[in-house]
Write a structure and sequence with these properties.
mainly alpha; 2 helices; rod-shaped
Length: 80
């Protein structure tokens, strides 16, 4: 009986160690996902800023003549 008890203890210890290792790996994966999501959000914010800036420049919101107006003025009248 003591042989089986010792064997069960070792098995339980092995299971516990494996579970701990899996938990650590899942924790590391979660950190990686969080970091990736944070970088993606930063990139999206930057892209949104650039798109907004381009839109403002396209509609003349920057206070200067925009490229769309310049292009339209340089086309022949029948193409406008």
């Amino acid at each position: 009986m003591s042989f089986t008890a010792g064997c069960n203890e070792r098995q339980q210890q092995s299971v516990n160690e494996n579970a701990r290792q899996v938990g650590q790996e899942v924790g590391e994966a979660a950190k990686d996902v969080q970091h990736g999501a944070s970088k993606a959000a930063d990139s999206l914010r930057e892209s949104s800023r650039e798109a907004a800036q381009g839109f403002r420049e396209g509609v003349g919101g920057s206070g200067t003549e925009n490229k769309a107006d310049e292009h339209r003025e340089n086309r022949p009248v029948d193409e406008r």
